[in-house]
């Protein structure tokens, strides 16, 4: 039996179908009041709860993290909202400090915010996952130096994502994770359709070939990486 771990899916979403002989574990990820509730209701066995960069103006009710595996998703995104940079930073730092207090890993979104992301993580040390990585190999190496796992979504299969593929080549297998970011970012050959967690199979197959690793070995290593990250001894 081959086991895959989709480390990032938003609910509600259908799980989808996998080839025979492949089983799936999924981490349900929050980021807003609605997504947090849906992640808990999904009852996948793994859950991340938190407030993302779009929640700067909403009422953020306290979250019960007792059964959460991670704080997330959290982070910075200057692609669409660079004008909210300072408020995003304040919320990101608040969530990092919370993760420190709870001694839980974080699930971080970072887009076009490399310098600020690195500065925050150096100021408020954390551990966990950089999800759906879209940056350069240089940025990836700096995140690895800070101890993070780097997770790749279906973006790595997109024609224009050479920078993401180059980063995937330099991330050691023992620091690499796979995700869907469902219901977004369906991988080739399903791009343009609603994404589901089972589609992590296509991204994992692509990455295994990119890394020159047998698929079964790649699946086993990345599955254990996820467990080690989310359930530290």
How many structural domains are formed by the residues? 1
Q: pLDDT average, as an integer? A: 97
Q: Under the CATH scheme, which architecture would be assigned? A: Alpha-Beta Barrel
CATH class: Alpha Beta
In the CATH hierarchy, the third-tier topology is known as TIM Barrel
Strand content: 15-25%
Helix content: 25-40%
**Distance between the amino and carboxyl termini:** 25 Å
Biggest sheet overview: 8 strands, parallel
CATH H-tier superfamily: Metal-dependent hydrolases
Question: How many beta-strand elements?
Answer: 8
Strands of the widest sheet, in order across it, are 1-2-3-4-5-6-7-8
Global structural class: alpha/beta
Number of helices: 7
Explain this structure.
With about 230 residues, the protein is of the alpha/beta class. It has one domain (about 1-230): Metal-dependent hydrolases (TIM Barrel), CATH 3.20.20. The protein is about 35% helix and about 20% strand. The protein has helices spanning about 35-40, 85-100, 115-125, 135-145, 160-170, 200-210, 215-230, and strands at about 1-10, 20-30, 45-50, 70-75, 105-110, 130, 150, 175-180. The protein has an eight-stranded parallel beta sheet with strand order 1-2-3-4-5-6-7-8, sandwiched between helices. Helix 5 links the parallel strand 7 and strand 8. The chain is globular, with a radius of gyration of 16 Å.
